[in-house]
Amino acid sequence: xxxxxxxxxxxxxxxxxxxxxxxxxxxxxxxxxxxxxxxxxxxxxxxxxxxxxxxxxxxxxxxxxxxxxxxxxxxxxxxxxxxxxxxxxxxxxxxxxxxxxxxxxxxxxxxxxxxxxxxxxxxxxxxxxxxxxxxxxxxxxxxxxxxxxxxxxxxxxxxxxxxxxxxxxxxxxxxxxxxxxxxxxxxxxxxxxxxxxxxxxxxxxxxxxxxxxxxxxxxxxxxxxxxxxxxxxxxxxxxxxxxxxxxxxxxxxxxxxxxxxxxxxx
Length: 266
Description:
mainly alpha, two-stranded parallel sheet, 58% helix, 2% strand, elongated, disordered N terminus
């Protein structure tokens, strides 16, 4: 047998494949590299959006832990939106001990009478709203102060089932992490109290009555409290007959709020 024919029979085919470009069926280095790059791209386009979503979902829960620190002064999403779009924002933080008790008592009785008792969600009120809706009655709000705090801190304005669904777990978490007094303090300092960017009770009291929060009268406190649902329309310094009527009710309730405000400063 000739020495030239002693090598493996496949050697000639491999040489011919390389020379003639025939497909040997085995992946080349170039093909393997392309597959690795495609696999990396697929993982990247799945991984990074998923990571971003996880961070966005986790951020409110992490921030709530930070907001337990008294020195931290949270801002609302609406405040951020106004600042980014170049609209004025007037917010001066004030501690709850420097707010007239009649003010937060009025807010309590106007917005959420069971604030000190529930755990972020007023289940009794929520069931009543659901029953009314099932019976075809006009839907009404069932937001607690804690839920409104969650909305102002982390969500957006406007009514939607999606936002309401996000509010509830956030409200439960906020109530679990933060003391009631701290929740009320944050709410008073991030709520919108005026028509042109007045956020927080210090800016609201100054804008409408030219007073500091600790100098508000019982009547002014009641008028400010009933302004909260719509400060762009309701003016506590120049109240309508309807606004005065509602303020009368809230002022009377605030004067007898001793059984409801036990979680707040005396």
